[in-house]
């Protein structure tokens, strides 16, 4: 009798699960998000565009964004630096991948945190080449005639070991005072940790003197971005774990200096070369975790500044490949008492006024 009851129970359970699976299979897809005219709602691109770099093509007014190599779970494997485009920063479409194959100057790794700039009539992409806990990551350079590529790899710029800086990734190109610089560096507990800068050659393709590097922050920052406004250079950097799914406490902190090379101080006057420094700009909320690693600030045609970054929807933190669903996000950046501010200090979750562009 017990045996009969057990068989009946198992049969009922299987049938129930089968019915539930069929219900899920037959469940209609969620309708597309409808947003009012002149508005937008986060995220602005899914499923993934982590560590975004954004540039506007002057001749067309089109924006292009580039993201860290990742497997979107779409059956196409790793996207080797996905390229997406937009006319207004809020409506993005996938174009293609920047690379058709991986660079060959390193035996293994992913192409992370690209930084795309228009230099000498070409599109230069400085990129990280690394694996998690890589003992000797590095930074390379690829160049294209168009923001849509194809990007042709020009090889290694340097390895961590050659710069004497641990975890030399996350490049950021800056021009200042007629000179070219590259900022780089990420998390490390080593004594020579932190984000550093070094002068590049006139063509931006090499580092003439690696011994002239200068230190910007301590080793608890990554994803450097510097924005010049008025008399100050504003440093934006991310802290904590970028990729812990719904539990991520990634966030952006800031400091400022009157010199590109620093010293950078936060609102409390603490130098960013000290651990635990930086004034908080944006952190997680009830909807989005891990907001961080922002692109350059974009100013719209109404004079508003916009902050593009990635974050993780806590309700769907990963894609089918297991990768963190680090979607592209957009929020307005305002300025109060000489410091950048994001409303509520967290990602927006409701409809917001959209950026203003005449080419939209």
Automatic annotation (TrEMBL):
Site feature: Important for catalytic activity, responsible for pKa modulation of the active site Glu and correct orientation of both the proton donor and substrate: 170
GO molecular function, one term: hydrolase activity, hydrolyzing O-glycosyl compounds
Gene3D superfamilies: Glycosyl hydrolase domain, family 43
Similarity annotation: Belongs to the glycosyl hydrolase 43 family.
Protein name, entry field: Arabinan endo-1,5-alpha-L-arabinosidase
Natural source organism: Mucilaginibacter limnophilus
Pathway of action: Glycan metabolism; L-arabinan degradation
Domain of life: Bacteria
PROSITE patterns: PROKAR_LIPOPROTEIN
Keyword terms, alphabetized: Glycosidase, Hydrolase
GO annotation, biological process: carbohydrate metabolic process
Catalytic residues (positions): 51 (proton acceptor), 222 (proton donor)
One Pfam entry name: Glyco_hydro_43
């Amino acid at each position: 009798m017990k045996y009969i009851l057990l068989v009946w129970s198992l049969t009922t359970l299987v049938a129930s699960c089968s019915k539930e699976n069929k219900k899920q299979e037959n469940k209609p897809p969620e309708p597309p998000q409808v947003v009012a005219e002149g508005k937008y709602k986060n995220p602005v691109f899914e499923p993934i565009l982590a560590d975004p770099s954004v540039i506007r093509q002057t001749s067309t007014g089109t924006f292009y964004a580039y993201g860290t190599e990742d497997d979107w779970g779409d059956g196409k494997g790793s996207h080797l630096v996905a390229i997406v485009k937009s006319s207004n920063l809020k409506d993005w479409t996938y174009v293609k991948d920047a690379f058709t194959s991986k660079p060959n100057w390193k035996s293994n790794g992913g192409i992370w945190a690209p930084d795309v700039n228009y230099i000498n009539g070409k599109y230069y992409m400085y990129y990280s080449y690394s694996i998690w806990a890589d003992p000797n990551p590095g930074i390379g350079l690829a160049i294209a005639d168009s923001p849509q590529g194809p990007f042709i790899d020009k090889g290694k710029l340097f390895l961590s070991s050659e710069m004497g800086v641990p975890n030399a990734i996350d490049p950021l190109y800056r021009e200042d005072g007629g000179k070219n610089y590259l900022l780089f560096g990420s998390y490390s507990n080593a004594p020579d940790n932190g984000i550093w800068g070094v002068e590049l050659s006139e063509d931006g393709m090499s580092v003439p003197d690696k011994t002239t590097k200068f230190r910007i922050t301590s080793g608890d920052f990554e994803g450097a971005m510097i924005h010049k406004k008025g008399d100050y250079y504003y440093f934006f950097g991310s802290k904590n774990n970028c990729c812990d799914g719904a539990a991520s406490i990634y966030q952006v902190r800031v400091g400022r200096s009157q010199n590109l090379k620093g010293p950078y101080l936060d609102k409390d006057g603490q130098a960013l070369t000290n651990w635990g420094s930086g004034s908080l700009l944006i952190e997680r909320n009830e909807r989005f975790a891990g907001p961080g690693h922002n692109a350059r600030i974009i100013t719209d045609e109404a004079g508003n500044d916009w902050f593009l970054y990635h974050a993780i929807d806590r309700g769907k933190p990963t894609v089918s490949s297991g990768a963190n669903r680090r979607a592209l996000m957009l929020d307005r950046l305002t300025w109060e008492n000489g410091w950048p501010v994001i409303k509520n200090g967290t990602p927006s979750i409701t409809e917001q006024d959209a950026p203003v562009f005449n080419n939209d």
